[in-house]
Amino acid sequence: MLAVSVALTATPLWAQEADDPPAADQQDEMRRPGRLLRLRLPITGSADSAFRSIVQRTKTRLLTDYDGEDRPVIVIEFAPLAEGDGFGQGTDFERAFSLARYLTSDELAGIKTVAFIPRTIKGHGVLVALACEEIAMAPTAELGEAGIDEDPTRPIEPAVIEAYRQIARARRTAPEAVAIGLVDRNTEVLEVETESSIEYVEREDLEEVEQDETVIRTTPLFANGSMGIFTAREGRMFGAVKYVVEDRESLAGLLRLDSDALAEDAALVADWRPMFYTIEGPITAKTPGRTRRLVDGAIDNDGANWIGLRINSSGGSRTYALDLASYVASLGNDQRRSVAYVPEEASGVSALVALSADQLVLGRDAILGGGEPEPLDEVQLIPLRDSIKESLAPSTPHTWSLLMAMVDPDLEVYRYTNTQTGAEQLFCETEADEQADANDWRQGDAITTPGEVLRLTGEDAVSLGIATHVVDNVEELNQIYGFQSTPREVQTTWSLELAEALASPGVTVLLLVIAFAGIYFELHTPGLGIGGFVAAVALLLFFWSKALHGTADWLEVLLFVGGIVAIMMEIFVLPGVGIFGLGGALMVVASLVLAGQHRLVPRSPEEFAELQTSLAVVATAGALMVVAALLLRRYLPKIPILNDMMLAGPEGEELAQLNYRESLAEYSHLVGKQGVTTTPLMPSGRAEIDGELVDVTAGGQVIDRGVAIEVVSARGSRVEVRQVTS
Questions:
Q1: Helix 530-549 and helix 494-502: axis angle, to 10°?
Q2: pLDDT digit string (tens) for 257-298?
Q3: Which residue numbers delimit the NfeD integral membrane domain (predicted)?
C-alpha cells in the first residue's frame, strides 16, 4: 500500500528541532562541521558527474580528523538559473536520477545531506531534493511540478514513476504517494485522516485503507490532471519539509553549524575562468565607465566567471563610487562570482565598492574604510541613505547599516545576535527594528566610534563576518580558490585610451570646431563634399569618444541629428519662420552639453562641476567656431586651388555699388538676364546674375545648384527666376 502515516498523538521530532533550536549559550558546545554546495539547475550534460566529484571531495574533507558523534552536514543549495521562468526547468531525468541514486547510496555513509530550497524549484531537479535526508525551504519557495518538462499529451514513462517511488522509499523524505504526485499529473493524491493517523495515498489505494482503518475524512492533496506542488508550510504538514528558514544563517543555527560553515567553499567549485582588474587611486568620473567596459569585455569575450577586483584606493568621488559599487554588485549571479581583493587599502568611499562584491578578501595589514569623510548635511544624507538602503544593499551580502557606516560618521552600528538561531548581523537600531523578527535580535557591542566612519583591519573584518579571508599575498588567494597561477590581469585597450583622450575638454573643443568649420565650408562651396566628410568624421569621433567615456548615448545622438534636420528645414524648406531654426539650434546645443556629463539632471557637487565643464567646452567651441567662420569667409577665397571652390565676396567699389543697390532695393536692371544658381532653390536661395550674388526665389519650383536661370521679374528686393530650358 502506497501510504505513509503521521501519528496524531505525538509531536514529530523534526518539529521540535525546527521550532526549538538549542539555546544560544549551548550552541558552541554542540557545533559540528558542515559545508554548503550550490547545485545549479537545470542539470544537463555531465553536470551530475561534476557535482558528484565535488560532493565526494567535500565528504573527504569533512570526515578527515573528525571523530564527533554527530554526522557532518552537506547542505545542497538548489540554484536555478535565470533563463526561462527561472525555476530550474530543463533538467535531464537521467542526470537527476543518477545524482539522486548517488545521494541515497552507501558512498555517503557518515554524512548527512540537507536540501536547501531558497527559491521555487520545478522539473526533475525535484528528484534530487527528495534524495536528501532533510529539506529546508524559504517561506516563499515552492517545490513540485517535477514532470513539467515531459510531454503533456503522453503518460509519464513507468520508469520515471518508478524512479520517484524508489528514491522516496529509500530516503523517506516525502511520502511515496506525494513523490509520485509531484511528477505524474494523472495521479490523484489524497490526505486520509483515520482514527489513529493521517495517511497520504493514491486514489486507487483508498479502498485498501478503508478496509484496514476507519476513515474520518478524505481531502484531495493533488488533484487528477495537474502535477503536485507545495509550499514550505504545506510541506511541513506532511513531513517532507523539516525546516522553514529565511536564509543560510538561520539554517546554520538550526543544524548546529558554525555561522560560516554555509559559505560556499570556493576551492570546491570547478571550472573557474578567472580574471583580475585593478582599481588604483581615487575613484573619479572615468572609473565606473572604464571598469564596466573592460570587465564586461572580459566576460563577453573570454567567458570570465570569477571576477577579481584588486582595489587599492583612498576614496574619491562619492557619486561615482556609488555608481561603481552598483555595477560591482550586479556582477555576481548563479553563473559568476565577484571577489574584491584589498591588499593594502580601500578607505573612504572605495570601501563601498569592496563591500559590493560577493566575497571580500583582505591583506593582513589592509585597511577597510576610515579616512576623512565628505561632509554630509541633511539634504545630502537622506537621498544617500535611501540609495544605499533601497538600491545597493539588497544586491550585496551586507546590511545597509554596515554600508552607511562607511560614509556616515554619526551612524552607530552594533553586533546583533538572534536568540532563536544564533545568527549574527551588523545593524543600526533603525535597521534592527525593521526586521520581521525584531524581538529575537539582541543588541551587543558597538563596532563604530562616534564621530568617525567605520575603519576595520583585515582580522576585524573576518571576525565580524564581513570578509571571508585574510591573506599575506596573492599566492594565498590563489590557493583559497584553487588557482594554479595568478589570474590574468585585464589591461586597457588602445581604443579606450584613444576614446578617453578624445573625450578630454581640449580635444573635444577641437573636434567641435573642426566639425562646424567643415559644415560651414560645405555650405559655401560648389560641392566636392570635402567639408561634409571632415565634419562627419569629427562628429563621429566626438560621439564615439563620449559613448565610450560613458557620457553619451542614443539620446544625445538623436538630439543632434534632429537639431541639424530642423536647421536645414529652416534654411531650405521654411525660410523666415524661425521656429525650426531656433528649436534646432537649441537641440544641437543641448546634445553637445549632455554628451559631456554622466547624468541628465545633476544632483551632487561633482555632477554640477561636470555640467559647468560641459557648458564651458560648448561655449568655447562656439566662440572659436565664429572666429573660424570669419577667417574662412575672409581668406579661403584667396587661397590658391581653394579659391575656385568658394566665391569671394565683393570688395572695394564693387561692394559699395552693391550696398547702394541693396539699400535702394532695386533689381529691375536684372530682368531678362541669365545667371547660375549658387545654392539649391527650395524655392528660395542665391544665384550669380551678371556677376552679382542675389537672393532669388523660383516661384514654387525646386532648382538644383549650378543650374542656368533667367530673371523673370524684380519687385523691390524680390527677384523671381525660372530655369532656362534648352
A1: 110
A2: 876 677 766 655 556 788 999 999 999 888 888 898 899 988
A3: 507-631
